[in-house]
Amino acid sequence: MREYNFGHFLYILRSDAGLTQFQLGKLVGVSDKAVSKWENGVSKPQRDILYKLSEVLGVSIDELLSCKYHSCENENVKGVFATRKQLWSKALDAMHNRYSEFVPIEILNRFLSEKADIENTDMIVYFDFLSALVSEAKKNGEHIRIKGGVASSFVAYLMGATEVNPLKPHYYCPDCKRVIFDDRVKSGWDLPSINCSCSKTMRSDGHGIPFEVYHSDIQRNIALAVDVSPEFLLSAKKCAEEYFKECKIKTEERDGHICMITVTTQKSEQRILFFADDELAHYKLLEERTATSFDRVRFDTADILREFQKGNTDGITEFKSTFTKNMLEKVSPSLFNDLIQISGLSHAVGGWRDNAEALIQQGFSIGETIAYRDDVFNYVRKRMISKGFTDTGFAYKVMEDTRRGVYSKNGIPDEVEHHLRAVGTEDWFVDSVGKIGYLFQKAHGISYVRTAVILMWYKLHYPKEFNEIMML
Ligand SMILES: [Zn+2]
């Protein structure tokens, strides 16, 4: 028996790549309705489309047809780009710049674990490319959105290829570089402001994305997907062509809205996808019209969260649908982490209705429910550690099976449930993972919430400009 049907497997591949049905449809030359029909099992793509899907989603035809991944990821990718060694030094320098020469051991551990994980691949080169693209965008006052597994990586964060810091919640001093970890919260954005012993105001960051979750995200070997404004599409393409000018590359454009660049080295082939998204042009316009920058927005818990509690989210990306408004009403978010959980649940399958929603009615806080892969992994790992098990393999398996909906399709195997019970798992958790069909990447959710919070700031401080630009 197959683990999944085709539609569900396609949904997972598409969501992991951060693509909408519309974007995937454009890439393979069909409508979003056709993609929706495939995912719902109403119809199946024809053979020539299957080839395109395999190219775009970075899986083989065989994997698509058998509806499962094969375990041959990245084995052959070695020693292709000459600068890799220097790039690793660059990442190390960035870590020391932020967290001092005497970086705390848990930070060093994360860096070294990621390094061991991807050192033999070309990934560091792509991190560096994305960082160059971010700089190019900033220079032009443009906003871009980097999607896919890259966003969970600490090394990618250090290189400037993602805004999401996956370390545990912590304070850091921009001046003397002191670091204080603080596990009272799940998101560093929820840490109250404090001063460093050197008297500078400390900054807070960190979202606690475990190494194992990053590993799961990055190993998918998917295309690098980047949303850009329509005006920046050509510049992004040029930036890639310039960066990879000594490599074999192929550029394909579709409808003037999508650009796909394939970089082929001796042993690997990587796709970089640029999508034109009008929304990102609106962000630039908002900055221009108000003569302010997104960067100046500091997360102010009191008034910004109050607006989310009131459901004042018209025009706020990711929070304006009836579904998310309903969640906001039920949850009444009092923390940034609550917003991050809501974002995850809005992309999950089987996570909210008859699941987290019911738990919240029973008195659970949304932070205790399962909104991301991380929540499954952390929950199981914590219980295993309390029973003296240090190996994380079982927690990893439960996370992987849950996020792909294996249990909701086939039920939880007896031996898995037995082990879950043996480490002290509660009934609600077993019940909840049994209902989940898909879980989103937390790094994506964090990135969406970051933008939503910034937009809310504009809605509060520049309502006229916000209405004119974002309420179209
Ligand atoms: Zn200091």
Short description:
With 472 residues, the chain is of the alpha+beta class.
Describe the structure in your own words.
The chain is α+β, with helices and mostly antiparallel strands and 472 residues long. It has 4 domains: 6-66, 434 Repressor (Amino-terminal Domain) (Orthogonal Bundle), CATH 1.10.260.40; 84-167 and 207-276, no CATH class; 280-367 and 441-470, Orthogonal Bundle (DNA polymerase, domain 1); 373-433, no CATH class. Helices cover 52% and strands 8% of the residues. A hairpin with a 4-residue loop joins strand 7 and strand 8. The chain is globular. Residues 71-80 have low confidence and may be disordered. The structure holds zinc ion. Residues 173, 175-176, 178, 196, 198, 200 line the site of zinc ion.
Task: Name some characteristics of this structure.
single chain; 472 residues; alpha+beta; 434 Repressor (Amino-terminal Domain); DNA polymerase, domain 1; 4 domains; five-stranded mixed β-sheet; three-stranded antiparallel β-sheet; 8 strands; binds zinc ion
- What's the multimeric state? single chain
Return the domain count.
4
What is Rg?
A: 22 Å
What is the count of helical runs? 23
End-to-end CA span: 48 Å
Which hetero compounds are present in the coordinates? zinc ion
Percent of residues in helices comes to: 40-55%
Residue-averaged pLDDT: 90
